[in-house]
Amino acid sequence: MPRDVGLALETPPLTLLIPTLVSIGVPLGFLWFVRRMDLYASGSFRTVLVCFGAGLAAFPAAYVLNTQARGLMLASGLTAVAASLLLRTTVAPIIEEVLKSAGVVYYANKPQFTYFVDGAIYGFAAGTAFAVIENVNYLQNAPEGLALGTAINRAFSTSLMHGGASALVGVAIGRFRFEKGWTRAFALVGGWGAAIALHSAFNRLVNSGPMDTMRLIGAFGIGFGAVGLTALFILWGLRVQRRWLRQSLGLDVGVTSGESEVVQKLADLDELLRPITEVFGPQKRDAVERFLRIQARLGIKRKAQQLTPDAKLAAALAAEVADLREEMDQLRREVGVYCMTFVRSILPPETEALWDPLAKRLAEVEARRETESGGMNLWQTLGDRADAAGDGAAGGAFADSDAAEDDATAGDAAAGDPST
């Protein structure tokens, strides 16, 4: 709960539009960045919104509790200065970190919470929401002429600290959510402890003396450091999830090894799918991307189902896996056999033995079409060859994949002064 500090950036009296946009827009921009890091989108956007809403609701609750705590400290004989300092550096961090994480804790045993990548994003969303409404509150009390400076300072320090601190709680819950017994409870307490320590350290820094340049740089450093730490946790989680995908995606869920390899490299998806856009157009390309992302979500949910010791959660995850399989089948039909054949022809080397000859043949036909005056319908030629082949390579692969998926599906069915 640092005092109002700000660069001496003059703003016209009563003009709070730009400071307000900064106070809200910058934190939301960082939340967008953090959310975009989740390549596999294992957590739902709806859950992000719910956690954001929980963060907004936490602010008035913290305001009331902080006010009451300050009153009790004054009644105990502390001076106003001592009570405010104790509130900002010790009491407020505890109250706020517990309240901000309420939404994340609620989802800890829900299928929407898959791993700590989700926890980091949900926590960051809750902390960002709290910071946004707190920023607006501070602007109402900012000294005339310092509103823009206050908005900039808080947007790039306090707001990021709030998001990063709440993300630590989500990471702790997600990292140990597959453990048994008291381990998960200890994880929550540990996450709260880390968040409170970060919050308290920040407040001690900005309340330890005049807000000079070095102290301001330190506040910015903690803010950006909190975002960086959140990003590192997400990258670590994505690495684990890639390993999950290698283990959980296979023909038993209707996914070839090449498709599984592409799913593990979604960061390079634009480059991988560029030929699809050139040959089939942007609509088919988007359908292929949705198909691959659903495969990723299916693999992660399937692994989470295997790891969780909670029978009720495992059943909920199994239902999600079944829904994702159905959605994947629908998208496979939407993409179509010709486009899917082309997709598999550009997959990584793991499937080269099966698909590379077809890819080379497609290239030869395409070159011939460009040189022959009469032209040639590439995909009609492919269709004729596929029909002639009957149960050949392409048809056999699709049939085996679909049959395996059907079998697997049947098996699965078996603050008075609000603090920062």
Structure description:
There is one protein chain. It is globular, with a radius of gyration of 27 Å. Mean pLDDT is 77; it is low at 4-14, 250-255, 348-362, 375-383 and 389-419. The chain is mostly helical and 420 residues long. Helix 2 packs antiparallel against helix 3 (80-100) and helix 9 (213-248) packs across helix 13 (282-307). The protein has 18 helices and no strands. Helices cover 76% and strands 0% of the residues. It folds into 2 domains: 17-244, no CATH class; 250-413, no CATH class. It has helices at residues 17-36, 45-75, 80-100, 102-106, 116-140, 147-155, 158-175, 183-206, 213-248, 257-263, 269-272, 274-280, 282-307, 311-335, 337-345, 352-371, 378-389, 393-413.
Summarize the structure.
Helix content is 76%, strand content 0%.
Listing every helix as H and every strand as E from the N terminus to the C terminus, the arrangement reads HHHHHHHHHHHHHHHHHH
* Cα distance spanning the termini: 4 Å
Tell me, what's the shape?
globular
SS strand fraction: under 5%
Structural class of the secondary elements? mainly alpha
Report the count of strand segments.
0
Low-confidence stretches: 4-14, 250-255, 348-362, 375-383, 389-419
Task: Kindly report the average pLDDT value.
Answer: 77
Rg over CA atoms: 27 Å
Number of domains: 2
H/I helix tally:
18
Report on the biggest sheet: none
